[in-house]
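Page header: ASSEMBLY MODEL / two components / 714 residues total.
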Amino acid sequence: MSDTVIKVEDVGKLYKLGEVGTGTISHDLNRWFAKVRGKEDPFAKIGEMNDRTAKGGSDWVWALKDINFEVKEGEVLGIIGRNGAGKSTLLKILSKVTTPSTGRIKIKGRIASLLEVGTGFHPELTGRENVFLNGAILGMSKAEIRKKFDEIVDFSGVERYIDTPVKRYSSGMYVRLAFAVAAFLEPEILIVDEVLAVGDAEFQKKCLGRMKDVSINDGRTVLFVSHNMTAVKSLCNAGILFKTGQLAFRGTADQAVNNYLQQVDMSQKKRWNWDNAPGTAEARLLEVEVMGIDKILFIEKAVNIRFKVQLSETVINDRDINFSLVLYNQEEVAVFNVSTHSKKVSQQTIEAICHIPPNLLNDETYRVRLLLVENSSNALFDLDDVIAFKMEEGYRESEWHGKWLGVIRPQKLIEWTY
Amino acid sequence: MNTSEILNVPEATKVAEDHWTEVIKPHTSLLDLRLGEIWRYRDLVIMFVRRDFVASYKQTVLGPVWFFIQPLLTTITYVLIFGRIAKLSTEGMPMLVFYLSGITVWNYFADTLNKTATVFRDNAAMFGKVYFPRLTVPVSIIISSLVRFGIQLALFLGVWIYYLAKGSAIHPNWPLILLTPVLVVIMGLLSLGLGMIISALTTKYRDLIMLLTFGVQLLMYATPVIYPVSSLPPQYKWIILANPMSAIIETFRYAFLGSGSFSWLNLGYSLVVTIILVMIGTIVFNRVEKSFTDTV
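Prediction written out in full:
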């Protein structure tokens, strides 16, 4: 049986909401007095579960509460959850940047945490000087850094600029150098927070490769917080899911990810009344809905976008009407523009569904623009942002975990002769 | 870390779990200062000192010459305003050497205090992301201020030797000059202690930073930098002497210039105050460093 290297016991973290520093002297004295008498912190009692969307009555909130779990040696643990679920707080406690309010964590071995790359980088110092400074901040000795210096520079690929102040670096070079220092840390336990969301695709690949090296080949324990579900699934062998400050699930990485995806309802629906509906006097959009097979919009599955439009009397049975849809990605690139045929309609409300086939879209967020056109020339309305939706990747066959390039991802639609 | 931290684990499980290298808990004892840890991070201290120097003089034409220019210009200003216009007493000493001695010593104290007092605020971004013993930062500040002080002391010694050779009214008390390192250590610790207390409090009450900037300036006037203690009316003398910096500057002047007075009692008082402040400062600092990321 492998050894437990991290043991988290009843850990909780209480945060105060709102302004810190105004009117807190009285609170401070109050807490201090309670402590002197050996009583429990009077403000700890009124702490609430952390749900940032709900409006609570208390000023104190548990960012983490009653967290218990163990990490075994050599385990690569993915930590996932929505923003504000408590992942980062846990990492901060583990990295000793802040202390827990309750409970304790036992650790075996040297821990190094990367909550950010390039901590302490000074813009005026050269790359070389910063490597030494950053290395020392991360807990390496000068001798250790010197030994690995060539490797670090080599990995970063900024050799030519190593004696130039880092303020002259491009942001990409800066991040490369910063990550390179971190990559050559040799702790027994490594904590990584979403630092992979940096750099270009080539470098990301390098970073993930390095992480895999550290975890699989060197057998080190890694705790990895990320929103990149693909990376979590392919890098981690175990996963925990946080939900509003509590541990919601502990199991394999795949299970945790699926659990996580289930809790977010990605199908989207918007509905309006005639009075406030977007559009013009002649036609208004009443409803729009993005539907997947599940609640999750997987790129391997079809996506249907349904529209419901109300027309004014003047339009019915009079003019030829057609729908036209433009899909944009986040970089405002028009992915495609598709339209229906033109026809006369007799009802006041009409519906149209756009069926987007599986394996077409990439794992991105897309925005829908809808036009209603009369007589194939004149727009009755042109609504730029009717709805947006995010596609998720379901599974991946290849070893590569970075982002697939392209506004679409027709991997299954396009055939090769090979 | 030591195993004594997990003493309250039930006996049965203790045997099996004795091997934890570290335990993260809500509170650690006040006296657990982990000085050994700072020693392990000594490379980092050196790196911080280097950074302070290199960073502050990169892209300046004169570079470290600024270390000389700043006290020199201040001294000239004081000579003009306090010496020539206000005609404050310098106990018959040449004005230049009198003011320069006070400024050199005071600058070391003020520099260190100003910087250590804002340690948490200035390094919040770094402290929020990586753990290393926070005390390394104030320690590195003392050291880099010390180097600066050394350079400025050399300037003072140059001026001092010039006046000595010219045969002015300077009468050094040679044996007491040997006390200089002691004075420097007391000053360094005094500013460190005070700075740590202020920095710990500023994490919560930012008001203190506002107070600090002009507070240090005002404190200079409550220290015999621009006037000798002997020129004070007797009924107010004790107020000035209650300031632990006063004895240090007086001793420094008495040793090098032979002006003013020297008393072991006053110097001993400074030492005691320093020790108390450093102790309080270290404890408060250690306490705050664990939770400050939540308040800054």
